[in-house]
Design brief:
Blueprint lengths: L1 E5 L2 E4 L4 E8 L8 E6 L6 E6 L5 E3 L7 E6 L4 E6 L8 E8 L11 E4 L3 E6 L1
Parallel strand pairs: 2-11
Antiparallel strand pairs: 1-3, 3-8, 4-5, 4-9, 5-6, 7-8, 9-10, 9-11
């Protein structure tokens, strides 16, 4: 299974970006998909996830600003990021979970993409 994340870039504070994660290979569209990020000098952290039934959860730091959606037919997940802040600057990773439901823990995720860089200037 390979995951391709795209859509990152350099934006200003307050702008929006949409990240896309496409899975290829022997994937299961019934498994959860998650987004994580890692800022320079910091550990990777949970951003949000979407379960097989469309249920979502988010980190408090992005709740109300970020939205995850998916197109199961295309094995694709999206991360819509609005009202971006400089502290959102990070490499964003998508991941596919082991099961239809996943938590915020990275150990719940089996496959990982290569990451896409998001830089938010003030």
């Amino acid at each position: 299974v390979q995951l391709q994340a795209s859509g990152g870039g350099l934006v200003q504070a307050g702008d929006s970006l949409r990240l896309t994660c496409t899975a290829s290979g022997r994937t299961s569209s019934n498994n959860a998909m998650g987004w994580f990020r890692q800022a320079p000098g910091k550990e990777r952290e949970f951003v949000g996830r979407i379960n097989w039934n469309g249920g979502t959860s988010y980190a408090d730091s992005v709740k109300g600003r970020f939205t995850i959606s998916r197109d199961r037919a295309k094995s694709t997940a999206y991360l819509q990021m609005n009202s971006l802040r400089p502290e959102d600057t990070a490499v964003y990773y998508c991941a596919v979970g082991f099961r239809p439901y996943s938590s915020s823990g990275s150990l719940d995720y089996r496959y990982w993409g290569q990451g896409t860089l998001v830089t938010v200037s003030s």
